[in-house]
Design brief:
The protein has helices at 25-43, 56-64, 66-78, 111-127, 154-163, 184-190, 205-210, 215-224, 246-253, 275-282, 309-320, 347-367; strands at residues 2-4, 10-16, 48-52, 81-87, 135-139, 169-173, 199-204, 229-234, 236-240, 264-266, 268-272, 289-295, 305-307, 329-332, 371-373. It is an alpha/beta fold. Strands 2-3-4-5-6-7-8-14 form an 8-stranded parallel beta barrel, surrounded by 4 helices. β5, α5 and β6 form a beta-alpha-beta unit. α1 crosses α12 (347-367), α2 (56-64) packs across α4 (111-127) and α4 (111-127) runs parallel beside α5. InterPro entries: AP_endonuc_F2_Zn_BS, IolE/XylAMocC-like, Xyl_isomerase-like_sf, Xyl_isomerase-like_TIM-brl. Pfam families: AP_endonuc_2 (PF01261).
Length: 375
């Protein structure tokens, strides 16, 4: 979906397809028909944005075969779908039974990560609509803190590669709890020397909330460092106001699952690297917890738990409520639908949930004064 800010900035709204399992081109094409087009139809819009996740094997397949790229672009157009942003954080295996720390590998100390990201940027330049101003690729915040080595010049190589492209595509580093770049303070410090024409920040509002960061202060910090918010990932974290309460602990236990890492903080980082560790005594339980578990934007989890939707709403207001838009790409990223305690029972349930999240985001943007652009 497309919007126009009062200052004239075109703003793109999409949902991220890393919620779907697909690691070859056939799987990606299937998900367009199985989910993308049905979500668009449920929303009643002529055009729906996708934040495509193209795993390393898919990207390799597309880079090697220009006809495959044309096929993907044709399928997107035929189904009323468009792409201006890619999620390049997971490399592959994002729907393995156990992902956890593997999602941070390979990290930004390796040429494999650089080549993958440049391949994504090249593919996005070919997939973007002709009238798109620019594209974006979100990526991991350098790496997991205990595994990190120096980038060895990979970020400089990345920027130089992006500068050589015919169409502009920027790469956005996504602060996340437990990583080398965990907060916007670390982003401002560790990305101070990058080429800011091509590199910036992907602000994920679930991660922002788990870090107990104030949206206004965080955005001011990035602006002072000269770092653009290249992309916003609209997401909400799980929140427990009284984690020592037995009913609350029982509710939190229902969110413990083996696939993804659910970093947990109490009032501020540092915290526990996963929810099960927090429940086992990794956090005192004397103040509210926020958990890196992406929950649906439009509906709170069952009481006594809540979500950090207010942080998302405040961030949207900071980005779009002023005289100037402070980003132009918004991606709804709830990749955890299938591991929720009340996971959708079938495709129809997932389609309905994704559409409801997008509708919440759409209404939020309109309330902030953006105009929805229709065909």
């Amino acid at each position: 979906m497309r919007f126009r800010h009062p200052d004239g900035t075109p703003v793109h709204l999409a949902y991220c397809t890393n919620v779907h399992q697909a690691e070859d081109l056939a799987g990606v094409l299937t998900q367009l028909a199985r989910f993308g087009e049905p979500v668009r139809e449920r929303l009643g819009v002529d055009r729906l944005g996708l934040g495509l996740w193209l795993a390393r094997p898919v990207a390799s397949e597309l880079v090697a075969d220009p006809a495959a790229v044309s096929r993907l672009r044709g399928e997107l157009a035929a189904r009323g779908l468009e792409v201006v942003t890619l999620n390049g954080f997971p490399y592959q295996g994002f729907h393995d039974p156990v992902v956890k720390h593997k999602v941070y590998r390979p990290d930004w100390s390796t040429p494999e990560r650089t080549q993958y990201t440049l391949d994504l940027a090249r593919l996005l330049a070919e997939l973007m609509p002709e009238d798109a101003v620019r594209g974006s690729v979100s990526t991991l915040p350098l790496g997991w803190r205990t595994e990190w080595r120096d980038d060895g010049g990979q970020l400089e190589l990345l920027a130089k590669g992006l500068a050589r492209q015919d169409r502009p595509v920027r790469v956005a580093f996504e602060p996340e709890p437990g990583c080398v770049i965990e907060t916007t303070t670390q982003a401002a410090a560790l990305l101070s020397e990058v080429d800011k024409n091509w590199l910036g920040v992907c602000l994920d509002t679930c991660h922002l909330a788990v870090g107990f960061e104030d949206p206004g202060a965080a955005l001011g910090r990035l602006a002072a460092a000269g770092l653009d918010v290249v992309k916003l990932q609209a997401s909400a974290a799980l929140e427990a106001a009284s984690p020592a309460d037995p009913a609350t602990r029982k509710a939190l236990e229902s969110f413990v699952e083996p696939r993804f890492l659910h970093q947990s903080n109490e009032s501020a980082p540092p915290g526990a690297d996963d929810l099960d560790l927090a429940l086992a005594g990794g956090l005192p339980g004397e103040a509210p917890w926020r958990v890196h578990f992406h929950v649906p934007l439009h509906a709170d989890p069952a009481p006594p738990l809540t979500s950090t939707r207010p942080v998302l709403a405040a961030t949207l207001a900071e980005l779009f409520g002023g005289a100037t838009a402070r980003t132009d790409h918004v991606e709804v990223e709830t990749y955890t639908w299938q591991v929720l305690p009340d996971a959708p029972a079938d495709d129809a349930g997932l389609v309905a949930g994704i559409a409801a999240e997008l509708d919440w985001a759409r209404r939020s943007l309109i309330e902030l004064g953006l105009e929805e652009v229709t065909e």
